[in-house]
Amino acid sequence: MIRLFNTLSGQIEVLAPADASSFRMYACGPTVYDYGHIGNFRTFCHVDVLRRALLLEGLKLRHVMNITDVDDKIIRNAAQAGVPISEYTKKFERAFFEDLDALTVAHPEVIARATENISTMVRLIQRLAAQGYAYRTEDGSWYFRISRFPEYGKLSKKDLSGMADGARVDVDEYEKDSARDFALWKAPKPGEHFWQTELGPGRPGWHIECSAMAMEYLGDTLDLHAGGEDLMFPHHENEIAQSECATHHTFARHWFHVRFLLVEGRKMSKSEGNFFTLRDLLLKGYKASAIRMLLISVPYRQQLNFTFEGLAGETAAVDRLRTFHQRMMSAPRATETNRELLAETEVCLRGFRAGLENDLNTAEARAAIFDLVRAGNIAADAGAVSEENAAVILETLREFDSVFAVLEDRDSAITKFALDWAEQEGRLDQAAPEVIAQQGLSDERIQALVEERTQAKRSRNFARADQIRNDLAGKGILIEDSKDGVRWRRK
RNA sequence: GGCGCGGUACCCAAGUGGUAAGGGAGAGGUCUGCAAAACCUUUAUGCGCCGGUUCGAUUCCGGCCCGCGCCUCCA
Question: Å from A312 (CA) to B43 (C1')?
Fold first, then answer.
């Protein structure tokens, strides 16, 4: 049973679906106006961890994520690029999913695009209007009347009663009744793309899309709603207001918010020069698996300080796990089962599960797995790993990886993908030279050099052997000799 | 100003009223032609500061200092 912090109640609660047949969750997705940055992906990775942990609990999932494919930035950027917004958003939506795949983030069961659900939003707004929660302004926009919803602020714990209506109204807003009232439907400005609907011409406000689509695909009450911490207010607060006023039911039973990350101790921002997209890091030669590991290793409610030193550390940590995984698959088997190791494995598995169940404490969960790595290595060094031991350890690693998803080495292919993309986009100058050099070497070429080195060693020509090894090392290829033969891998 | 989170070794970080997990980095060792990988040993009498409660506090309470986040569309 997973215990998880609920922003709404401010407490840690046991997470269970209202209806046992499926766990219904909604996670706010991206606005597809640019490439995603590592801050975005920290949130998506942690939602992915939640998703995977729920599956591990044996729950059936129905997970919906929206794609915001119309908003001010999109309209602006598409106009600048001189392309229709659909063409503009398609490009970044594709890039977004490519990035999710690189980070092994599983896709939700349902992807809901705002532009494909306009009529659902219109109906929701009409429902609100019919009950007096929405009003139309002179320019043809529709707003939500916050004063009609006394519980407004219950998620973000804001007391808005002290804020007098109309105390400070932006001059460019059309006569809203209150400064806090938010747009449900925006009348088009000249030249803007719009939908002709029963509400009049225009496009949806941002908040309404999540309410409308969440309820369309999941019903009036969700088991859980997720997003970055910044969305808590006003976005999620507004979603609650719209949804609960329309249906008079609880909108989401549990609210899950992922904290922002810092980069080198500072808030990530373009002006600070510490703003990184996933693709930036891949071109610098950092492995996708290490990035995922770093993003999820600090528990979701904790601020993560993303540093390059930390990233290098996680690269080593992932390597260590993979090396251990390989070793457990191939290590010579002892005839007798190591009871002590069996017991240690059990303790580690329990520790792993306990960590996850404890408010998704990924740091605690992964510590248990590293305990297993040590125990397994010690036993393997002593030749005391039986078939049964190996099987149980491998099963534990499988369970670990069903959540962490870092053991399979797809890094080289992902880096190659990023390089191909950079080439197409004319951004190859952003790639680190070593990365380009390494990718220029095919597996076959490396294999040939490794064999040449082995021959050189056999004839005790260590100078030549070391030269090959050093050359390859300079291109990020590591050679490891072992009793079972020579292994090589891309650093 | 309002609301919230945090300050644990060189870095990241878990954690508990009874004496500090884990990862990385560093140092020494085993192994190796040399490396790498792996393993062993080692690195906080100490958990921001000051008081208090307690047999005992890093863990509870109070005060202070510092950092961070949100407070109109940024995950």
Answer: 21
